[in-house]
Design goal:
Blueprint (H helix, E strand, L loop, with lengths): L7 E4 L5 H12 L3 E5 L14 H12 L4 E4 L6 H15 L4 E4 L14 H29 L2 E6 L2 H4 L6 H21 L4 E9 L13 H10 L4 H12 L10 E5 L2 E4 L17 H12 L9 H4 L6
Parallel strand pairs: 1-2, 1-4, 2-3, 4-5, 5-6, 6-7
Antiparallel strand pairs: 7-8
Helix pairs in contact: 1-8, 3-4, 4-6
């Protein structure tokens, strides 16, 4: 008996990397799977290639599982509706959505175009909304369901040249929490995962210096399968009551991330003026200001 026996899962961006690993792990756990993938380049461009998604479907069939391929774009409302409908038509229900589809257009902020920004936010943040919203009526009607949304430490901590990606990934955190709050009464759960894995999404990291080369060699140890296990666990009935949380998976480590809460306060009975804030508040808070860290400066130890 698998933890997802009798369940149906939709995994977006499921032809490669973390998405592929999640789709296969869902099948091993007993779920029927909709393998969604648009089959485009890392930047989201190209005419679309059906073969990668079909190969994952074949892999699932080879281990005795059930799966269908879907080639819709999460960035399009109608496509998101159709991929959820495909799950209902093929398998009779939908129980889990893993929002994994993504693209990258890394560029320094002062050089970023509107198209660069919109293309990435449209897939990550709007795509997560589209697919989640498409599944919501079915989850509500059946009185249960689970979402897992892929975030990133690029949004939680920060990274260089990724304003579009970081904004989308931090937005997904807020979206996940809002879904958890709004749909709790229907027994629907929503959690976010920041995955650490060597995939084509991170393979563009520069290797111009020995330090960068050393970091990349460490990242190559991070296999997508370790992320997949966490995603499947969060979608299972055994994770009932786990909602509105932010997790991370880094090889054999699993994290629970903090969420923003006040850490210092300053009060005056007379109200604040700009001059008083400059004189009193900023010096009082300065020791607790966060430095401009990048993700790699926070997660400095070797994967275990």
């Amino acid at each position: 008996m698998g933890v997802m026996d009798g369940k149906v899962a939709l995994v977006t961006g499921a032809a490669r990397g973390v998405g592929r690993a999640v789709a296969l792990e869902m099948a091993r756990a007993g779920a029927a799977v909709v393998v969604n993938d648009l089959g485009v380049s890392l930047s989201g461009e190209g005419g679309g290639d059906a073969q990668p998604a079909e190969e994952v479907v074949a892999e699932i069939a080879a281990i005795g599982g059930r799966a269908i391929a879907n080639y819709g774009s999460v960035a399009r409302w109608d496509d998101a509706q159709a991929m959820v409908r495909a799950a209902i038509d093929a398998f009779g229900r939908i129980d889990a959505v893993v929002n994994n589809a993504g693209n990258l257009r890394d560029v320094l902020f002062h050089k970023m175009t509107e198209e660069d920004f919109d293309a990435v936010v449209g897939v990550h943040l709007k795509g997560t909304f589209n697919v989640s919203r498409a599944a919501a009526p079915y989850f509500k009607e059946q009185g249960g369901g689970a979402y897992v949304h892929m975030s990133s430490t690029s949004g939680l901590v920060g990274n260089f040249g990724q304003a579009n990606y970081a904004a989308a990934k931090l937005g997904i955190i807020a979206l996940s929490k809002s879904i958890a709050l709004d749909m709790q009464r229907f027994n629907v759960r929503s959690n976010a995962v920041a995955p650490f894995a060597w995939t084509r999404m991170v393979s563009s990291i520069p290797t111009d210096t020995p330090e960068q080369q050393q970091r990349v060699e460490g990242l190559k140890k991070l296999v997508p399968e370790k992320v997949a296990a966490l995603c499947v666990a969060l979608c299972s009935d055994a994770a009932a009551g786990v909602t509105g949380q932010i997790f991370g998976s880094r090889n054999n480590e699993i994290y629970l991330f903090s969420q923003p809460r006040p850490i210092r306060t300053a009060h005056t009975a007379d109200g604040w003026t700009p001059e008083a804030i400059i004189e009193r508040v900023i010096p009082q808070f300065r020791n607790d200001f966060y430095p401009l860290h990048r993700s790699g400066e926070v997660f400095t130890w070797d994967p275990v």
